[in-house]
Amino acid sequence: MKRPSVLIAVVALVVAAGVAWLIWGGGNAKPTAQQAVSGPYTVQFSADEPRIGGNTFTLGVTGPAPDAVTVAPVMAPMGHAFAPVPAAPDGPGRFRVADVGLPMAGQWEITVSLRGPGGPAQVVFPLLVK
């Protein structure tokens, strides 16, 4: 009579492993990459493994070279809005901002603001934090 209980335990273990794989994405977290256009600027936004805590965002900007680039995270339904964080140049047309704190999981909006010879511009990227 021990065979059915062993079989049940094995099946339960396989089901638990499958659920864990679905919840955590199988350990293959993928970067979030998006693109938007505002005025003369095309902005490519990338976030590797968006998570609770500090995040690093990479921005690619084509068009007139901006003098200043900032990112500001907002989670409007929860009333979270943080001050803009300046992005540092990371090569021609590339910017990087590190340690952007996102205190909770859910749907965020990352507002990228640009200022430069092409005038001011803003683009908003949705970002899901798990």
Strand order of the largest sheet: 1-2-3-8-7
Q: Return Rg in Å.
A: 21 Å
What is the domain total for the residues?
2
What's the pLDDT, averaged over the residues?
A: 85
CATH architecture designation of the largest domain:
Sandwich
| Overall CATH class of the largest domain | Mainly Beta
Query: What is the tally of helical segments?
Result: 1
Strand content: over 45%
The CATH homologous superfamily of the largest domain corresponds to Immunoglobulins
- Show unreliable segments: 12-23, 25-29
Shape: elongated
| Largest beta-sheet details | 5 strands, antiparallel
CATH topology of the largest domain: Immunoglobulin-like
Find the count of extended strands (DSSP E, 2+ residues): 10
Please identify the structural class as seen in this structure. alpha+beta
Percent range of helical residues:
10-25%
Secondary-structure element order, as H and E? HEEEEEEEEEE
Kindly report how far apart the N and C termini lie.
43 Å
Task: Give an account of the 3D structure.
- This protein is an alpha+beta fold and 130 residues long.
- The chain has two domains: 1-29; 31-129, Immunoglobulins (Immunoglobulin-like).
- It has one helix at 2-23; strands at 32-38, 41-47, 53-62, 68-75, 80-81, 85-86, 88-89, 94-102, 106-115, 121-129.
- Strands 1-2-3-8-7 form a five-stranded antiparallel beta sheet, with no helix packed on it.
- A hairpin with a 5-residue loop joins strand 2 (41-47) and strand 3 (53-62).
- The N and C termini lie far apart (43 Å).
- The relative contact order is 0.21.
